[in-house]
Amino acid sequence: MVTPESALPGRDSRPLPAGDTNAVLGSSLEGPWPQGSEVIYLGAGCYWGVEEIYWKTPGVINTSVGFMGGFTPHPTYEETCTGLTGHTETTLVVYNPEIISTREILAIFWENHDPTQGDRQGNDVGTQYRSAIFWTTPEQESMAKETAQQYESVILARGLNPITTQIAPASDFTYYLAQESHQQYLYKNPNGYRCHANTGIAFPR
């Protein structure tokens, strides 16, 4: 992991436009969102596939992709791909907790990537692909830690490695939106790169 001192310097403002509206859901990429909505930030490898999974999920109000967990201000996609910003590719998920619970949001997260691989996801290697949950409420924090323990028990029983997912408060970091062409990428490019599928290891409901 790059250190703050050795991270790329970045810049003072967004390098490229991110757009205003989610191309699939029609929601504002940066809010405001309906009262009572909750926001969580999830890193699970290439953000294109993660975002697609969540925009298809009933109860999800908005999704976007960006970079979080690192040190470089306003990084570009190309800079993040070097691993020298400290960020991981991240999907913002805004959801209505009266329709879908935080637990179910996290169950989808656990079941659709490998949280045991450390700084990689499949053939995508580097800290920019690490598994991460950046929570925004105490309930999300407790649920993230609880579900991690529960899913790790399932994984260990299969003879697999422990979970490596970073669990941290979103308030410790800034979420930087990726450029507009990366937002809802697999909607705009239906034959684009997909590396996510249900792993077949069910989260205990």
Structural features, described:
- With 205 residues, the chain is an alpha+beta fold.
- It has a single domain (38-188), classed as 2-Layer Sandwich (Peptide Methionine Sulfoxide Reductase, Chain A), CATH 3.30.1060.
- The chain has helices at 47-55, 77-81, 102-111, 138-157, 185-188, and strands spanning 38-44, 60-68, 88-95, 120-121, 124-125, 131-135, 166-169, 176-177.
- The N and C termini lie far apart (34 Å).
- The mean pLDDT is 97.
List the helices and strands and how they pair.
Elements (H helix, E strand, L loop, with lengths): L37 E7 L2 H9 L4 E9 L8 H5 L6 E8 L6 H10 L8 E2 L2 E2 L5 E5 L2 H20 L8 E4 L6 E2 L7 H4 L17
Parallel strand pairs: 6-7
Antiparallel strand pairs: 1-3, 1-6, 2-3, 2-8, 4-5
